[in-house]
Design brief:
237 residues, alpha/beta, Rossmann fold, six-stranded parallel sheet, three-stranded antiparallel sheet, 5 helices, 11 strands, binds 6-phosphogluconic acid
Length: 237
């Protein structure tokens, strides 16, 4: 596990974008699972503004580690956020965007389609392997859309599960722990003082941290990097 700590959200976004380009710009297809949330939003803006001419986007295939069960036009949609902050600003082939869909596309009301991973990735012992999985972490220690109250979903048989947000009850689709830990690289993007306690618990694996899904992120490849701002890293020893 590697910790990279930067001044603020903006610097996290700039440094992560440089890391992403270094990993993705190999001339070979690169399959990345994106995260929702506020930190990735800034990352996408920086990636599009500072790096779009340095990237051969035709080689990058975009997926989501989790998605809210809403139509792609809904403000809650992670897909919509990514279109607004990234896809609308770069030249990426439509075929490279693998949105999590329901069965009755398009524009269906809340669509949840567990078990859907339209991905032709190479597999590790039957588990799809992303080149990179980008994760956030909630104040409660959730990651992707695996929440503490449904931590059993982490070990679900299905690669893709349907979860429920503990407060809003919103249904979400999420990749499970096996898919996350099969990835060649996993990068956490965590910023803000509200995360500091959980970052300490998860990174230092303190007492009780096992209840937090973020603690279970432990890629077989050993390649786990945390991109943190100083506020989120404030409680680390
Ligand atoms: C989502 C994300 C979720 C997010 C965390 C952290 O769909 O909302 O996948 O897991 O990463 O809630 O969000 P912030 O980056 O906004 O703190």
């Amino acid at each position: 596990m590697e910790l990279k700590i930067y001044r603020d959200k903006q610097e996290v976004a700039e440094q992560f974008s440089a890391y992403f380009v270094e990993k993705a710009n190999t001339g070979k297809p690169f399959h990345v699972a994106l995260s929702g949330g506020s930190t990735p939003k800034i990352v996408f803006d920086v990636l599009a503004a500072n790096f779009s001419d340095k990237m051969d986007w035709s080689k990058v295939h975009f997926y989501w580690g989790d998605e809210r069960c809403v139509p792609p036009t809904d403000d809650e949609s992670n897909y919509k956020m990514t279109v607004e902050h990234l896809f609308s600003k770069i030249d990426v082939p439509e075929a490279n965007i693998h949105r999590i869909r329901g069965e009755e596309e398009p524009n269906t009301e809340a669509i949840c389609y567990a078990n859907l991973l339209e991905i032709n990735l190479n597999e590790v012992e039957g588990t799809p392997q992303f080149d990179l999985v980008i994760l956030g972490m909630g104040d409660d220690g959730h990651t992707a859309s695996i929440f503490p109250h449904q931590i059993n979903l982490w070990n679900a048989e299905d690669h893709c599960v349907v979860a429920t947000h503990p407060e809003s009850g919103q249904q979400r689709v999420s990749i499970n722990g096996k898919v996350i830990n099969a990835a060649k690289e996993v990068a956490f993007l965590v910023t803000g003082a509200s995360k500091a306690k959980k970052v300490k618990a998860v990174v230092e694996k303190t007492e009780g941290s096992k209840e937090y899904p973020a603690t279970l992120v432990d890629p077989k490849s050993g390649n786990l990097v945390w991109f943190l701002d100083e506020d989120a890293a404030a409680d680390l020893d």
